[in-house]
Amino acid sequence: MRKQLGLWLLALGGLAGLADPALAGHCGICRYPRGCVTPDQCAAPVVTSTVQYQPVVEQHQQVCYRPVYKTEYRAEQYTTYKTVQETNYTTEKYTVQRPVVEHFDTVRTYTVQRPIHETHLQEQQYTVMKPVTRSFQVAIPYCTTRPVYEQHVRDVSHTVMKPVVNEYQVAVPYCVMKPVVEHHVRTHSYVVNRPVVEHYQEPVTYTVNRPVYEQHVREIPYTTYRAVREPYQVEIPYTVMRPVYEQHVREIPYTTWRTETQQYQVAVPYCTVRPEYETQTYYVPVTTYRTEVDYVTQQRVSYVTEPVVTERVEKVCGGHYETVTEYVPGPVVTRAVRSPGTCVFDPCTCTSRYVPGCLTHETVQCPGRTVCKKVWVPTEECRVVKECKTVCKPVCTTVQVPVCRKVAQTEMKACSRTVCRLVKEQHVRYETRTRCYKVPEHHVQRIPYTTCRMVPEQCSRTETRYRCYTVPEHHVRYQPYTTCRMVPEQHVKMVNRTRCYSVPEVKTCEIPYKTCRWEKEEHVRYVTKRTCTMVPETITRQVCYTTCRLVKEDHVRYETRCVVEKVPEVCVRHVPVTTCRWVCEEKQQVVRQCRVNYVCEERVRCVPVTTCKVVPETHCRMVPHTTCSMEPYTVTTCVKRYVPVCVPTCNPCP
Fold first, then answer.
1. Could you tell me the pLDDT band of residue 27, with boundaries at 50, 70 and 90?
2. Which of 129, 392, 527, 654 allows an S-S link to 566, with CB 3.0 to 4.6 Å?
3. What range does the record give for the signal peptide (predicted)?
């Protein structure tokens, strides 16, 4: 107890040493005025203690658990099924029909058409287009422009060049080509083919096949087998077919055609064309142009450029920048102002505490700032501007200009031409023609042939019951047959034929024609020429100038044109035409034919058979597995705890 009391006294002494001496009071802590010291104040105060709770913050550590996940891959096997196809071959029998070809000969009678060509002359009309020339006049309007000059006068002060004109005559020689037409006649020879018809006979050789039949006998060997049986013999009757041949004759009717010829006269009209020539005269307008030269006085205007300087006054806007200083006041703000506080003594604790003064709000303006800125000050001034322009001034000059014009002169020129006209003439000539026709003749042909029939014969043979063998026996039988061969026979017949050929004949005609030659003529014309000398002279006078305007004039000229028209004209010509007629002929032909027999055969083939089966397959795959485990960790927490503390208290003063 004493120790605790001593500790408290030491604490109070430390507090007294730290306190201000001017503010000390009771127990050396508070100071009172010296004049107010009483005996009661010198007595020791009674000190008591009070229990108070003081907060204490402590740190505690706590172990917690959190989950941790871990993923691992494990191998896992699984089974799948796959379909597999298998192909097996099985043997299958089937029957086919195999063709067996057997050939044999047959005689076939057929009819052929033999062409016979005949040539005739056929009259054929055709149309040709004959050209006919027709002349006519065509009026062609045309337009010309005639210049009309007008004189004007204006006052111009300038320097002009005065022309001085000197005229003189110049002889100009020129040449003119004059056409001279001459008429001539030339002889023209041409060849005309005259048709000539000639009749003649021509031997024609032809071949006829005559059939010749021959009898032959061929030997046919054959073998028979006789069966022998042992140890005993038994007679067994059997039948053998023996061929018996018989001769017959058959009649075959056939027809032959005999050719007969007949001649007759035919009137053949034909047409010939005879040319007739006629000379015609026609006139053709010929236009010639003559050039005439006229001189016209014209005034040409040329322009001269001169510089002209002008002055003008312009207002030019300018200015400059001036620096201006401006004071900007600071903003007005509201601030809190606290009045001075006082020290109040607490008798309970025997301490003095500071009490702050009251808080008041007042409005205060912040200090301002000075701002410098540039201001544009506009100004105006007048300036004299000089401009230089180029001005064009006209200058008139009188010039002699030659004008060429063409003068047309039309003359009618006589021309002659020869026109050929064809005159048609009809004629008749007689031709001997041959007509052939066929006369049928009927015949009968006897053909012998042989037939064979089988006659049965009864025979017997001996057989052995225990063993059997056969004994071959060779025989020969004779078979008669007939062959036919064709023997060619040559025959000759006379055929009337007509041959037409052309005989050339030379004819002569006279054809007029014209030639044109040019004759040269020399002429001389005189041309007036002028020389102009320019003399400079500066005057101010009235200058005459000429303006030209074009006046339209309409004219008409006539032109002679020729039109060629086609006139149809019918002509006749004879064209050889070949006709063909067909004559029937019978012929025989040995035809090789075949017969097809079908034999059944058994064959073997492999047929594929497909079967399906399911085959298991094992696979491996990785499957993830996740495991969870609790991992410990430390957590630090702050815990606030209240601790009881004894605090000394003073009793209140009486």
1. very low
2. 129
3. 1-24
Query: What's the N-to-C CA distance of the chain in angstroms?
Result: 28
Write down the mean pLDDT value for the chain: 77
Structure tokens at 172: 């100009």
Phi–psi pair at 232, nearest 5 degrees: -125, 160
Gyration radius of the chain's alpha carbons: 80
Helix (H) or strand (E) holding 33: none
Residue whose C-alpha is closest to residue 181's, from 409, 414, 408: 414
pTM assigned to the model: 0.17
The residues pairing with 140 across neighbouring beta strands, listed in sequence order, are 557
618-645: b or e for each residue (b if 16 or more CB lie within 10 Å)?
eeeeeeeeeeeeeeeeeeeeeeeeeeee
Neighbouring CB atoms inside 10 A of 352's CB total: 19
Q: How far apart are alpha carbons 154 and 273 in whole angstroms?
A: 88
Q: Are strands 359-365 and 351-355 parallel, antiparallel or unpaired?
A: unpaired
Q: What is the pLDDT of residues 45-103, one digit of tens each?
A: 555 667 777 787 888 887 888 788 888 878 888 888 777 778 887 788 888 778 887 87
Encode 548-577: b = buried (16+ Cβ within 10 Å), e = exposed: eeeeeeeeeeeeeeeeeeeeeeeeeeeeee
* Cβ 351 vs Cβ 26: under 8 Å: no
Count, in order, helices (H) and strands (E) of the chain.
1, 8
| Burial bucket for residue 34 (CB in 10 Å: 0-12, 13-18, 19+) | exposed
Q: Which two structure tokens, joined as six digits, stand for 474?
A: 């060779």
Q: Is the pLDDT of residue 28 over 80?
A: no
Separation of alpha carbons 636 and 576, rounded Å: 142
Q: Which two tokens stand for residue 213?
A: 């039949």
Question: Are 337 and 361 within 8 A, CB to CB?
Answer: yes
Q: Residue type for 508, please? A: T
CB 390 within 8 A of CB 303: no
CB atoms < 10 A from the CB of 27, how many? 15
Count of Cβ atoms closer than 10 Å to residue 180 Cβ:
9
Long-range contacts (CB closer than 8 Å, 24 or more residues apart) made by 525-528: 525/171, 525/172, 525/174, 526/169, 526/170, 526/171, 526/172, 527/169, 527/170, 527/172, 527/293, 528/167, 528/168, 528/169, 528/170, 528/295
Residue 279: strand, helix, or coil: strand
CA distance 318 to 379: 5
**pLDDT over 70 (residue 225):** yes
Q: Is 307 exposed, middle or buried (0-12, 13-18, 19+ CB in 10 A)?
A: exposed
- Which pair of tokens denotes residue 529? 């020429």
Contact between residue 105 and residue 530 where contact means Cβ atoms under 8 Å apart: no
Q: What share of the chain is helix, strand, coil (3-state, %, to 5)?
A: 5, 90, 5
- Say if residue 33's pLDDT is above 50: no
Phi-psi label, residue 350: left if phi above 0, alpha if psi -120 to 50, beta otherwise: left
> Pseudo-torsion of CA 73, 76, 81, 86, nearest 10°?
90
Q: How far apart are CA 429 and CA 406, in angstroms?
A: 69
How far from chain centre, in Å, is Cα 167? 77
Residue 562 scores a pLDDT above 80: no
- pLDDT, one tens digit per residue, over 105-146 is 777 787 877 777 777 777 777 787 777 777 777 777 887 777
Task: Report which secondary-structure segment, H or E, holds 16.
Answer: helix 2-18
8 A C-beta contact, residue 595 and residue 102: yes
Residue 231 preceded by cis peptide, ω within 30:
yes
Q: Which two tokens stand for residue 371?
A: 């701002």
- Taking 60 as the threshold, does the pLDDT of residue 20 lie above it? no
